[in-house]
Design a protein that fits this description.
Layout: H1 3-7, H2 13-39, H3 43-55, E1 58-59, H4 60-67, H5 71-83, E2 87-91, E3 99-103, H6 105-126, H7 131-147
Helix pairs in contact: 2-6, 3-6, 4-5
Length: 148
């Protein structure tokens, strides 16, 4: 797309917003697919491991809150990660229903590989933009982010 096409566009905020949503969805799908194919770790599973790696062991309810997801959704992800030996869950001595989730060394290794795969795909998708275009896109995304 040339710069003149961008500056003379008559698309309104709604049309641009819908285009942005479609693009964001497509980018997420491509990154997710590449990470899953390369490492077996989806974006949603990687996010759980990232939170645990950065914050340390968390109770499942705390993890759900940190991820801004429903506890049941997080429980399903954690169960899958546990089956792969990427996390461990330990019971609370005072409350058997309460579980603490910790990332394993294997989980840290897989997370590193998944993050690298995600970065490779983002480089492929956004690498065609020059520094000026990247800076402009970064500013626009930040401005919309502030509005959110």
């Amino acid at each position: 797309m040339n710069e003149q096409a961008v500056t003379t566009s008559s698309a309104g905020p709604e049309q641009v917003g819908l285009s942005f949503l479609a693009l964001a969805h497509s980018v997420r799908e491509r990154v997710d697919r590449h990470m899953t194919t390369a490492t077996g770790l989806s974006l949603s599973r990687a996010k759980v491991l990232q939170v645990l790696a950065s914050r340390g062991p968390l109770h499942q309810a705390e993890l759900a809150k940190a991820l801004e997801q429903a506890p049941r959704s997080v429980t399903q992800i954690v169960e899958g990660l546990e089956r792969l030996d990427l996390v461990t869950r330990t019971g609370d001595s005072h409350d058997r229903r309460r579980k603490t989730v910790s990332v394993t060394d294997k989980g840290r290794g897989v997370l590193t590989s998944a993050e690298q795969a995600g970065a490779e795909m983002l480089q492929q998708l956004f690498g065609s933009l020059d520094r000026r275009q990247l800076a402009a896109l970064d500013q626009l995304v930040a401005r919309v982010g502030t509005a959110v």
